[in-house]
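ENTRY TYPE: paired fold submission
RECORD: A
CONTENT: sequence, then structure tokens
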Amino acid sequence: MSERFYITTPIYYVNDVPHIGHAYTTIAADVAARWHRINGHDVRFLTGTDEHGQKVMRAAEKLGRTPQEHVDITVKRFEALWAKLNIQVDDFIRTTEPRHQRVVQGFLQQLHDKGELYRKKYAGWYSTSAERFWSDEEVEAKTGAPIADIRAGKVVGLCPDSGQPVEWVTEENYFFRMSAYQERLIAWIEANPRCIAPESRKNEVLGFLRKPLEDLCISRPKARLSWGIPLPFDEDYVTYVWFDALSNYVSALGPPEGGLHRRFWPADVHLVGKDILTFHTVYWFSMLFALGLEPPRQVFAHGWWTIKKEKMSKSIGNVIDPNRLVEVFGVDATRYFLLREIPFGNDGDYSPESALLRFNSDLVNDFSNLVHRVVKWSSTPLAEPAPLNELDAQLQATARRATESFRAHMDGLEFRDALQALWELVSAGNKYVDTVAPWALAKSGDTARLAEVLRMLRETQRIVVSHLAAFCPASSAEVLTRLGLSAPDLSAEFDVLPTGSTARAGDPLFMRLDNEATIEALGGAPAKPAAPKNAPKTKEKPVSDPTPATTAPAAPAPGSTLISYDDFAKVALRIGVIVSAEKHPNADRLLVLKVDVGEETPRQIVAGIAKVYEPEALVGKRIVVVVNLAPAKLRGVESQGMLLAAGGSDVASLLTPIHEVPAGSVVK
């Protein structure tokens, strides 16, 4: 029997407009579920919506709808976003569904019959926005005023969660004897140290449990709130939304005696935001203990996306719409960016610039480049697997190391680290292309070695996209199809693709996006980068044919005239990434390059390097460019800069940075 894996997201509050936080959690769960499916496991992935409560009822009243009509409309926003983001769920639970109500009422009756519930009069500060009571101490701390002034009405008390006003409410309700489980909760967490992750969150929960634990109010009077699941033993009350909502993880599996429940409970992972960790550990674990059910194997609380280190908030107006990211970057790139940019358990700051840099650097320059650089030899049959030479063996070793590390990180939900490990293989594959130069093998007629090299590169592509398929399912499936495969194959060995097989050519998977236009499309307002001093004006006439090439001149001999620092400072050097390269139409020793130097469009540079470099070998290379030279025509083709190379008039090598730095980076 295959290993099973049950993963859940929180059920999202149906009144919310889906934002980047919802997308983040759900994409992460989808990636984990897809990864387990690729590994042949029996997977169940659950998400859904929380549809009861006072806020829903009031919103429906304002719009002249019944609560059920209201949630039937608003739930479609979540369903549409998950479809757009290529989220592959096994079940979508709504708390208004009869199957959920049956299980919740069954739980309540069971706890009532066991004496786990009792009724008492309670008074406290109630927050409609958070749908919960707060203590004097909590309201006082949030409001920043003495509780006496708040009680006297001199200062409006504020909800510690939402910052909205609270009101003093006195009413009779039912309570769950949660305090009875305090010591058992501590013992369980200490005996199962992986049940709450990351480690810092586990320590946070244990710290909470070292203080006195109060019983949990699990009802609301129907006279105040009618929109909820009625208590089965008292029709004058409805269920408190958190007791209702948390039960979804079990209700979606049907009754505890059913086959689906026996097959998948306890859940392997509840993915939640750090702000609802206490509910999913202290509240939920206590409820499960009282019901005789085992807690989930792990609750993983991830951090928040922030804007300029500030939490996203509708009131501030800094909430990021994931639909906009998809419109600009596409689905796969959006999924990749959200899980690649920050460690999954930490907070992380979002900016349009970081999203664009990740897209152009990782997906265009690295991944798409690896796939597309050898597309012209797609019809060349693969060689039979043969003993590896030293260079080939290094690439094989990198594949084994990278995939082993990837798997270990995926087991720990360390998505960023998993992708970093995989990108070691992407980078190694691109460097392998540079070193073996398949274009040179084709030119020299060494078809046997070319077929061996193509096996190494196509197998590298297969390994990369098979592991990337959980993150970028559409583009990975496209590459697998080009390679003649119908599904990912996770083998790190270079003997999977059939001998003699060919590949199907295709367009680049990702195309570079313009910096300024993209940032503006994402809602940013970037200032245009200042032109370097003495930069050419577009109205200036270029000088015709002043020099034979635009590589740097030979270094002055020892004793040559020195220049001042001020003179040297006039030279503006930038890192450039070669986007395309082709032969000059009128000169055998010149190449015409398109180079991205971080501007709106790539620059055209003509360089005398054709004797040393094949055009195909240059695509994706990072070079150093002089960007403030006046344009010049070289054999009739305009050159808008100069690249730096070693070797004087007989160019031996381009100057390239040791590390991969972004296009447009200043060279000092």
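RECORD: B
CONTENT: sequence, then structure tokens
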Amino acid sequence: MKYTLDLEGHEADRSVPQRVAARTAIFAPLLLAACSGPYSTLDPAGPAAHSAAALWWGMSIFAGLVLLTVVLLWFHASRRGGSHRDEGSMDKSGDARRGRHWILGGGVILPVSSIAVLLYFGIPAGQRMLPVFGDEAEVLRVDVTAHQWWWETSYPDLGLQLINELHIPVDVPVEIHLRASDVVHSFWVPRLGGKLDAIPGHTNVLRLESDTPGLHHGQCAEFCGLLHARMHFTVQVHTAADFERWQQEALAHE
């Protein structure tokens, strides 16, 4: 019992910011550890993914600042609320003027400026996932057909077909031509870029590009039936020399 009372007294001696800082120091490493992994969009390995991750971090920081501002204003208002209970002492015209300023700033200026900034950075990020136009660009085409519950990939220019795996060269734009044979699926490689639906009877095109050789994991991101959770695939990114070697070995086994 004495030990418990000592702890409570120790907690009472610490200020609120100190207690918050102590708890933040405990849980922050756990949050940071969750930012990496084979399916993490915050561990990018391609131009489009880098843009999306930077946009996410910017939005998170801005949202945190807005939350902090709201909490501080609430705390300030709650501390000063008791001093305005006497209506005769209130400066009604001054309060109305300050209220209009807050409405204009928080209800008009802040949302408009936030949307403008998001569009400024978001439109280029979205363009990095669009097909590459121009004959001068070196583009690898891969046709991907989604089935319940597996992926069929083919390279029309190379004459190769694979199941549940893609092989692409590093720093080369890849156009993924998506189709579905049965229901709607969604093609997603979190570390390389955005996701796009595969729709029966329709072809969608998604651009992928990786700046880091290695193995990346993809997943169907649209519920498609009983084994949806097992509908995953891999994307192996090769250097230029390794991709040529893989291509020759794959053709030799056809």
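NOTES ON RECORD B: Residues 1-12 have pLDDT under 50 and may be disordered. The longest helix spans residues 92-127.
STATUS: closed
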